[in-house]
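Standup notes
- DV: blocked on the single-chain target, sequence here:
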Amino acid sequence: MILLRVDYFDTAGNLLHRYLEKPVALRPLGSGETFVPAQDPRGGTEANFIVEWVGERPITEPLIEAVMMGISGSQGFSFTSRGQTIPTRHLDERNRSPVNNDEAAN
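- DV (later): unblocked, structure below
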């Protein structure tokens, strides 16, 4: 799998940071890591990442998760959030309705 981009956006959808300067190849069962310090308030309460990837041949969709860890007083906490696939879509010029790119190939 080749990571093409890992971009960090704030609550309003503004790009805050591009984590990759160039594509990064991951081996099977490999993983990558992106770190946002807890003290970084730029993302707001609903910050987002977009991870774009390709395979050199058909591959299983990767598992992409965010992990949050912290301490409040004497209590520690952690949680995860699983990423979702965003289908690529375009506008069908004939009837001005959105079409998934996968459907357009058929």
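- Follow-up: The first helix runs from residue 101 to 104.
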